[in-house]
Structure to design on (260 residues):
């Protein structure tokens, strides 16, 4: 006689497993990394100046790329949104009119996101070099500011390259593309709605600077020797809710329990 311990179909079990695996992969992990701030007061004056110059050189070497990315993409999205709202949308009809306004909203949203993120890659080097540095205390303040700017740049780069940045454009395009496919019989416009946003978004992410993340990791790794702290960005805009997923027994077999 055969006994069946689980009553869930295989497909449902597979879906639960994938959801649990995804939630576990996306949940934040607590790790430790070396502290880049704790030993600033213990460094001698020459070492403080040397490390400040090193961070300023990092910003200088990537400043042109950062400016091109921030100002280039912000201007491109602004022009695109203005064209969709002011010229294409009012002159189009049906599916094309809908797609024009939807695309304009998407471009405006992308522009606002770029403007909302801090831009230390663009201005930090000049501010570091202009800070007063006539006394040891001022030079230490200058180093702390340089460290803050580098950490902020790393957090901005990380947000741009996070999986949510990839997924947001896909979700947006699938939603509106499906609506246009159902509401209108225009495969070309529907295809543009499905593919346009994700393609542009992936190009934006691909061209985004990513140097600050690696520079911040190198700085933390060699700054204060054997002192470790919780490896979590200190900026408030990078806080994430904790997520826990586990399989639990139910009357029908197994269920997925999510805690946010």
């Amino acid at each position: 006689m055969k006994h069946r311990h689980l009553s869930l179909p295989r497909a449902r079990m597979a879906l639960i497993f994938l959801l649990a695996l995804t939630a576990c992969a996306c949940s934040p992990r607590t790790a430790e990394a070396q502290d880049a701030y704790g030993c600033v007061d213990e460094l001698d004056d020459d070492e403080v100046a040397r490390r400040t110059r090193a961070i300023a050189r990092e910003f200088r070497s990537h400043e042109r790329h950062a400016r091109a990315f921030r100002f280039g993409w912000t201007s491109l999205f602004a022009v695109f949104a203005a064209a969709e709202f002011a010229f294409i949308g009012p002159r189009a009809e049906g599916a094309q009119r809908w797609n024009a306004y939807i695309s304009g909203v998407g471009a405006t949203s992308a522009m606002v996101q770029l403007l909302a993120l801090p831009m230390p890659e663009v201005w930090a080097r000049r501010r570091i070099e202009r800070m007063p540095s006539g006394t040891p205390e001022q030079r230490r303040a200058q180093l702390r500011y340089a460290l803050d700017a580098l950490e902020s740049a790393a957090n901005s780069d990380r947000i741009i390259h996070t999986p949510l940045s990839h997924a947001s454009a896909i979700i947006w395009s699938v939603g509106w593309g499906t609506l246009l496919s159902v509401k209108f019989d225009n495969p070309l416009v529907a295809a543009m709605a499905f593919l346009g946003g994700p393609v542009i978004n992936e190009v934006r992410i691909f061209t985004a600077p990513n140097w600050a993340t690696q520079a911040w990791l190198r700085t933390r790794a060699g700054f204060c020797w054997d002192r470790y702290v919780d490896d979590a960005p200190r900026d408030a805009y990078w806080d994430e809710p904790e997520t826990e997923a586990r399989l639990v027994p139910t009357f029908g077999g197994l269920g997925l329990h999510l805690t946010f």
Summary: The first strand starts at residue 32 and ends at 34. Residues 42-225 form one domain. The chain has one domain: 42-225.
